Amino acid sequence: MEQRAEPRFESEQVVRVTTLGEHSEEFLAQIVNVSGTGMRLLVDRLVPAGMPLKIEWNQILLLGDVAYCQPAERGFSIGLQLEHALLHTGELARLAEALLGEALPSRAAVSQPVPVRKPPNR
Predict the structure, then answer these.
(1) How far apart are CA 75 and CA 45, in angstroms?
(2) CATH number at residue 37
(3) In this structure, is residue 1 part of a structural domain?
(4) Residue 53 forms part of a structural domain
(5) Domains in the chain: how many in total?
């Protein structure tokens, strides 16, 4: 029986991924599953372990590092260790627009990300 610190929830939603290395690259990925501290994605390319990624998912912005990338049925499977999450990005952009009196680019970071909850040590 597999024991994990947190439950994983399956999904088939598509997210926008941006590599945050020296040469930034943007592409789409499909979520396989997600937990409070991790995410597994299916992608069409090899992404090196350790690469920091930005994930844009609905009104959520996630930051994390690739833990592994291995061949899968349709491309590659990435295990992502999540480090920060910023929720309700659309609402933050509207608030900033109201306060500043001007529209911000749709992908502008309005606030600093908050740390993701870490599982307790056992």
Answers:
(1) 6
(2) 2.40.10.220
(3) no
(4) yes
(5) 1
78 with 43: CB under 8 angstroms?
Answer: yes
Structure tokens at 33: 């599953």
Percent of the chain with pLDDT over 90: 48
Q: How far apart are CA 39 and CA 14, in angstroms?
A: 13
51, 21 contact by CB (below 8 A): yes
CB-facing half-sphere around the CA of 104: CA atoms within 13 A = 18
**Residue 89 CB neighbours (<10 A):** 20
Q: What does the radius of gyration of the chain's CA atoms come to, in whole angstroms?
A: 16
Domain that holds residue 52: 9-88
Q: Does 94 reside within a domain?
A: no
DSSP-derived 3-state class of residue 110: coil
Tens of pLDDT along 35-50? 989 999 999 999 999 9
Q: Does 97 fall in a domain?
A: no
